[in-house]
Amino acid sequence: MTPDAYCIHSTFEPSGPSEFQTDRHYLLYALKGTLRLEAQGKRWTLPPARAALIKSGCPIIITVLSKLTSASVLFSPDFIPTPERALTVFDMTPLARELIAECRIWGADSDPLTPYARQIFATLAEVTRQLSESPSRCVLPSPTSRELCKALTLTEAQSHHSLTFKEVAQDCGQSPRALSRRFAEEMGMTWSEALRRIRIIQAIEALAASNTSITEIALSVGYSSLSGFNAAFREVMDMTPSQYRASFTISDG
User: Fold this and answer.
1) What is residue 47's predicted lDDT score, i.e. its pLDDT?
2) For the chain, which residues make up each domain, given as ranges?
3) pLDDT, tens digit, for every residue of 175-208?
4) What is the CATH number of domain 5-131?
5) Which of 8, 36, 44, 107 might form a disulfide with 63, Cβ 3.0–4.6 angstroms?
């Protein structure tokens, strides 16, 4: 019999998008590596500094961006209160990570949970519930029209270059005015704001995937100066790239 709560502690190689849905509440978390989560018309990057709390039955799409060590936790709907939102992405804390580290010894094939194990899982559920009350702001809305999908794909592919909105509009066969209206209506942001968000998301992936210097990462995602990159990163993430990298530099035991 599957325990009321258990941890998936496994290693996964990089892989393309795959759909996932479970009848349990799901804490999606990676000790090492980076994955991309897509759901409800939005997209997030999850390095070890962030996690997602997903309500049972909520369909998601997962892409493993780099070799990943998972420490995700699944809770029976009868074991913890139902999350208020279908899906929330949030920043982790040292306490939450330590609780997950302790949960790794109980897998899907484990014996029924001991009182100690039940308390650990229940405490983790409560800690992550509180963390989920402050969702991450680093999210990119997904476009709905074919024209904007093309524009966003072009922007992502060329984001590390000196790209202009006029060039993107021209390549998409749209007038700048029409394309600007689509960005506002479908994504709730301007093209410049979307470009900045794309670059920060790419920087987050790079910060999690390697020890490349922050200056090199800044240049690789399209910033011409470290100061400009630091300012943009802080505006989106409320911390510097150095602080963010330090927040997920932990051991996987």
Assistant:
1) 83
2) 5-131, 141-247
3) 999 999 999 999 999 999 999 999 998 898 788 7
4) 2.60.120.810
5) 36
